[in-house]
Amino acid sequence: MEVVITADPGFVAADAIAAHVRPGAVLGLATGSSPLPVYAELLRRRDAGDLSFDGVQAFTLDEYVDLPRAHPQSYHAVIRREFTEAAGITVDAPNSEATDIPAEAARYETAIRNAGGIDVQLLGIGTDGHIGFNEPGSSLASRTRVKTLTPQTRADNARFFDSIDDVPVHVLTQGLGTILEARHLVLVATGEGKAAAVAAAVEGPVSAMCPSSVLQLHRHVTFVVDEAAAADLRLTDYYRFVADHKPEWQAW
Ligand code: F6R
Fold it and tell me: Which of 76, 130, 156, 184 is catalytic?
C-alpha cells in the first residue's frame, strides 16, 4: 500500500487516475464530497488539452434504493452532474428503479466483467470505515447487493438532503469482493473526521468491522490523504520518507 500525505489530495489523486486514462480504459467512480476536487482537476486537465477521455467508460460504486434516478441526490444524477457529462464519458450505475433488485445486482456485476474489469477505482471512506456502501459487518468477499445504511452514515449524508428522515435506508452497492477486482484502487480522504477510519483501514487489523481494511489484501492501493485525515496514522514519518524516495521509474 502506498500512503501519500499531501496538501492537495485532489491533484495527486487526479495524477493517479490520469495515469490510466486511454481509449478503452474503464474507470470506477465514487460519489460523495471527497472525489469532487479530483473530478474538477481531471476536467481542468481535459480543458487544458492535457487529457482526453475519448473511448473511456465508467462504472459507479453504489446507489440509493428508493430514490428515483431523476432525484438530484441520486448518485447517478450526481456523477453525471459533477463529472461524466462534462467529460463525455458513458457511465453505468446500479439502477435503483429496477423492479428486481437482485437481478439488477447480477446485471451490474456482469456489465463490469464484460467491460474487461475496472482499471482504476476511485474511493472515498465513510467515518465508520465503509467503502462503497459496505458498512461494518459486510462480508469481505461480498458482491453487488443491497445493504442497509448505519445510523452514522445516514447522519453523515443528511447534509445532502432536507432532513435525516429523507436519507434512504437502503442502497445497492458493489461488494468488497467486487471492489477488490479493480486493478488499482485510489482512496481519497480529507479532514479530521476521517482520521480514525483512515488509521483503522491502513494500520488496523483486517476485519469486517472496518470494511476498508480489506484494502490491505489488494496488491495496488494508493491512499491519498491530507494532514488532518492522516492525524491518527502511526507511520506518517515512514510514509513521507517513502514518498520523498519514490524511484522516478515507479509509475502509479
Ligand atoms: C459514495 C461512496 C461512499 C463515500 C463515503 C464518503 O459513492 O462510495 O463510500 O465515498 O461515504 O463520503 P464523503 O466523501 O462525502 O465523505
Answer: 130
Q: For position 200, which CATH number holds?
A: 3.40.50.1360
List ligand 1's pocket residues with C-beta within 6 A.
30-34, 61-62, 75, 124-126, 130-132
Closest approach atom of ligand 1 to CA 34: 14
Task: Tell me if 239 is assigned to some domain.
Answer: yes
| pLDDT tens per residue across all 252 residues of the chain | 999 999 999 999 999 999 999 999 999 999 999 999 999 999 999 999 999 999 999 999 999 998 999 999 999 999 999 999 999 999 999 998 999 999 999 999 999 999 999 999 999 999 999 999 999 999 999 999 999 999 999 999 999 999 999 999 999 999 999 999 999 999 999 999 999 999 999 999 999 999 999 999 999 999 999 999 999 999 999 999 999 999 999 888
- The three cell numbers locating residue 26: 474503464
Which of these is catalytic: 82, 128, 156, 226? 128
Q: Where are the beta strands (DSSP E) in the chain?
A: 2-5, 26-29, 57-60, 62-64, 90-92, 120-123, 145-148, 170-173, 184-189, 221-225
Other residues' Cβ atoms within 10 Å of the Cβ of residue 45: 17
- Number of domains comprising the chain: 1
Residue 252 lies in a domain: no
| Cell numbers for 88 | 463525455
Which positions ≥6 away from 65 have C-beta within 8 Å? Answer: 96, 101, 146, 168, 170, 171, 172
Domain range for 86 is 2-244
pTM assigned to the model:
0.98
- Angle at CA 185, nearest 5°, toward 178 and 73? 70
71 part of the active site: no
